[in-house]
Amino acid sequence: MSEPEVDLSEDFDHEELRSFWNLARFHAKLNAAPTYFGPTTLESVPPPAWAYGDSAEESDAFVAQVLADERGRTTAATADYDGELPQVGVLSILCDGSGVPRALVEVADVAVSGDEVVESFTVVYRR
Question: Which of 2, 35, 37, 52 could form a disulfide with 62 if both were Cys (CB 3.0 to 4.6 A apart)?
């Protein structure tokens, strides 16, 4: 599978993303000690949001599969990463074809094979 992304710039509701992030970080226990140390960057700034596929339908099908399996995988050309490969443990928000946040995912593995990068992730929280 290649990883062209659905354009979220027009239909993406930032307030909906922030609302999702507030729930996800609570359920994933990412704000364990805010009263002692104040908010961290992770609490204040949502991780990047993305959608997979060339169309809304393809993106929706990908999200449905990821939610059913509690994990997912994407493959892209190494050149697409501009020298910055994904890091294990990094969080991001997976959106459906309408730009609605559906899952908080964490990079579980990154494998480089020739000129391709395979990124595996697990679902941390789902809506």
Answer: 52
Question: 45 in helix, strand or coil?
Answer: coil
Q: In the numeric block, which tokens belong to residue 106?
A: 């964490």
As a whole number of Å, the CA-based R_g of the chain is 15
Which residues, listed in sequence order, are joined to residue 111 by a DSSP beta bridge? 118
For range 19-30, the mean pLDDT = 80
Which residue type does 15 have? E
**What does the pLDDT look like over 66-90, one tens digit per residue?**
999 999 999 999 999 888 999 999 9
Asked whether the predicted pLDDT for residue 3 surpasses 80, the reply is no
Type of residue at 90: V
CB 4 within 8 A of CB 50: no
The pTM of the full predicted model, rounded to 2 decimals, is 0.78
- Of the chain, the end-to-end C-alpha distance in Å amounts to 24
The number of residues in the chain equals 127
Q: Which two three-digit tokens encode residue 121?
A: 């992730």
Phi/psi at 29 (5° precision) = 60, 45
Nearest 5°: the CA angle 9, 12, 17 is: 130
